[in-house]
Amino acid sequence: MGGSYNVIIVGAGMAGLCAACEAAQSGAKVLVLEKEEAIGGSSLLSGRFMAFAGTDLQKKIGIVDTSDLLIEDMLEVGQGKNEKKLVEAYGAHQLETYQWLVENGVEFEAVRAASGHSVPRGHTIKPLQAITTLYNKALATGNVSFELEASVKRLRKNSDGQISVVIYERDGLEYFAKAEQGVILTCGGFSKSEDMLESFAPQLHAALRIGGKGNVGDGIKLAWEHGAWVRDLPYLQGTYGFHPTASGEKKSQAHVFYKGAIIVNKQGKRFVNESISYKLLGTKALKQPETVSYQIWDQAIMNDSVPGDALYDFENLYSLGLIEKADSLEELAKMIDVPVESLKETVSKYNEDIQSGGDQEFGRTTLTHTFGQPKPIIQAPYYAMVTTVAMLATYAGLAVNADAEVLNPFNEPIEGLYAAGEIAGGFHGAGYMTGSSLGKASIFGRIAAQKVVAKPVQIKENLSI
What's phi and psi for 179, nearest 5 deg? Predict the structure, then answer.
């Protein structure tokens, strides 16, 4: 327990494990502290997508994609509110990180289009396989020590002003560990902190809380004590697409709207362009009567169900009784208790617009972002899923630069302190591209490790605790 290390990493999700592997493979001595009883964190709850461009998987199925297009999409989805240098760093390192993950045994299964994609670039993984593989790779180096159920309480600087001591508790005892080159915070956001959500996002009080149970913002507080700034708090949004029965362990999520479904409220009326980011969809949905809405689609769209996919396995949700099915729109409207004539009129108007070249009401011209063509909803039977908004991840947090250094309010690095993954803000801006969360976790986890390992090792024993 305790001791001295080159780098100490707080949190063992995707970002922390990528940082641990990268640092250890460079020969650094690494300590990973995880407060939960198991590794993985909220990364295990993810939708399985990682956003990469120009990969072998894309080329095999004829998809032309580039880092420049990926960057362009991210900035557009983020409405220009993202920190451009962070997005550009993602673009510069994304392909090498994809290849590094493959070389380290992470298995990518398919490529699909999702929110914010101009072309399909959602590379699907099995989160447990990825997390377990990276954990085993880190252990195999012989340079990484993991301590579970180890809750970090405070960070301390040495007399040179560098973050160098981590104070943590385990089994009721307090320990001190020294980080000679740096500390990397990879311990998630605050989707399970009612206090922080009430302080920074009271508009989300009606959203389900289904993030990782350890995501209570403690990492952000550790950095705040030392003057860290935060970014993207004004853009905190829930994620649209969950059935009301969803929980952390049971996702019950469907993005049928990205396959062609429309979204209606309790009055049976559309209220949004269904192709936009599901974060922005969530903001609109929470403003509807009783915060209730429904995805509506037909058999042709149902046929696009993808077995085993976290977002597109509609048949599985139907088998679980979470999707309603009817032979007519009249019957469907009665089943979900929306006005029959209103729903029929909404679907009829939408079909007429789509078949004549464009959605007159909300301007929908694609399935998602700039990809795909909308379809009329005309082939019985018809389907509906009551859908709500969930707080799965916060996507706002500590200000960092392109080297993953945590910044103070003057954009100056806090010496010895780094952050990667959900805890870091500034990257997503006002929207969110599917796959960019796990993507940035892996990319900036590695960047943080590379920068820490490149720092000179402290020589003096000059800790001020």
Answer: -110, 105
